[in-house]
Design a protein that fits this description.
This protein has 445 residues and is an alpha/beta fold. 30% of the residues lie in helices and 22% in strands. α1 crosses α2, α4 crosses α5 and α7 packs parallel to α8.
Length: 445
């Protein structure tokens, strides 16, 4: 889609007013908030005070938005090293909520919110859902996880502020999800794209055709996903699938969102200042060129983030959006720099594998990448579920599909990899973020 949808409504939710702010006014607002944020971080967070002193930079040196480049970067290990409260700029008596990552790779990342921070987060998520065409009268099934994960509560408060009816069902219990979707006449669902795929599969097993339900919008985030997967979801689910962006370290969901034109994610840059840099040189890249997304919070009190390196690969989308929003847009994030793995000298991203598989008819969007090491040489095997029609066909269909998938992967990756076809419903489903990559190389040494 490259323009305004036929059913696009000119009605603007009041919370979306900042999305249409004149650019000079936005720049002035950003600079004022950036200077205040830098001052707060310098005065109240020892890490930033020390790093700015090392760079011989003071808050008074931030006179233009270009001066953001003088500030130090923040990376994920900084949050782990400062666990649990080392990056807080507010005393605990002003902190009204804590969230945290799972901590599967070490100490969890802890983030804090003042009451004002929660108001900013709610505002951003209200604007996110409004951009996806939702509003009062919609019934939103929120299947993001509640608890320490930011997704559930972030979407919940935004949907309530929007004036929609919220079903706080959280993740899991798929049969109940489908029952609620059907009986409550749900019009929108919030979850990861891979969990929605699981819902579609289970609904088909239960004899429920999701395309015949009132469901019309999916608000999907928390994991990278390709345009090929979006097309599959929209066709199989009979919905419009919108991508949203956020990360725990910044606020949670609500940093950016697609609008109904689906031509890039609008960054709510009155709260979150974006940069795209070359990850190697750490310098800005030209508009339209891919690089690493860096975000500075402009409104966060409890835990301001200066130039946080997200490791997400994106690019600024040139030009203006047909929707009329003046916010800058970034390309949909389908890969992360730290998702990359190397097989026999070739750089590979899971998103490339997904695109190659979905380009071949007969393959389902359920796959796993298995990495092993044999006699010191890295090996890659892709397990792919096939459609029931192909699975039951005994006249060469499986062999034909296998050859097409191997060829598509070879052309996309520039690498010959093994392909194993498996029956439908064979691979383990995820109720959150899907585990696409299983790296057994260290175990196999």
């Amino acid at each position: 889609m490259t323009g305004i949808p036929d059913d696009y409504s000119l009605e603007i939710h009041p919370a979306s007013a900042p999305d249409y702010m004149p650019v000079p006014q936005m720049l002035e607002l950003q600079l004022g908030r950036l200077r205040a944020t830098v001052r707060r971080a310098y005065q109240h967070v020892e890490l930033y005070h020390q790093r700015m002193d090392e760079r011989n930079v003071s808050p008074e040196d931030i006179r233009t938005l270009d001066d953001v480049a003088r500030l130090p970067f923040t990376v994920k290990v900084d949050l782990r090293d400062s666990y649990p409260f080392g990056l807080f700029a507010s005393p605990l008596e002003e902190v009204v909520r804590l969230h945290a990552s799972s901590g599967t790779t070490g100490k969890p990342i802890v983030v804090a919110y003042t009451q004002q921070d929660l108001g900013v987060w709610t505002d951003a998520m209200t604007r996110t859902l409004a951009a996806c065409g939702l509003g009062r009268g919609d019934i939103i099934q929120n299947a993001y996880g509640y608890g320490l994960f930011t997704g559930g509560l972030g979407a919940h408060y935004g949907a309530e502020a929007l004036g929609a009816t919220v079903i706080p069902i959280s993740g899991g219990n798929t049969d109940r999800q489908i029952m609620v979707m059907k009986d409550f006449r749900v019009t929108a669902i919030c979850c990861t794209p891979t969990y929605f795929l699981h819902l579609l599969d289970r609904a088909a097993e239960m004899g429920v055709d999701v395309r015949e339900l009132p469901l019309r919008v999916g608000v999907f985030g928390a994991e990278p996903w390709s345009d090929s997967l979006r097309r599959h979801i929209e066709t199989a689910g009979g919905i419009k699938a919108y991508d949203i962006y956020g990360l725990t370290e910044i606020t949670g969901p609500g940093v950016g969102s697609e609008c109904r034109c689906q031509v890039g994610l609008h960054v709510f840059e009155d709260h979150f200042y974006p940069e795209i840099i070359d990850p190697d040189t750490e310098r800005p890249v030209p508009e339209g060129e891919e690089g690493e997304l860096v975000v500075t919070t402009l409104s966060k009190h409890a835990m301001p983030m200066l130039r946080y390196r997200t490791r997400d690969i994106s690019a600024f989308v040139p030009g203006s959006c047909p929707c009329g929003r003046t916010l800058r847009r970034i390309k949909r994030i389908s890969r992360r720099s730290d998702d990359m793995f190397i097989i026999r000298g070739v750089n590979v991203f899971p998103s490339q594998v997904e695109s190659a598989l979905l380009a071949v008819e007969g393959a389902l969007p359920h796959y796993q990448i298995i990495l092993t090491r044999e006699e010191g040489l890295d090996q890659m095997e892709v397990h792919v579920e096939v459609t029931p029609a192909v699975s039951s066909d005994k006249v060469g269909a499986l062999e034909n599909l296998h050859n097409k998938l191997a060829q598509s992967l070879n052309q996309t990756l520039g690498l010959r990899v093994a392909v194993r076809l498996v029956a439908p419903q064979t691979l383990k489903r995820s109720e959150g973020k899907a585990q696409r990559l299983i790296d057994r190389r260290n175990l196999d040494q």
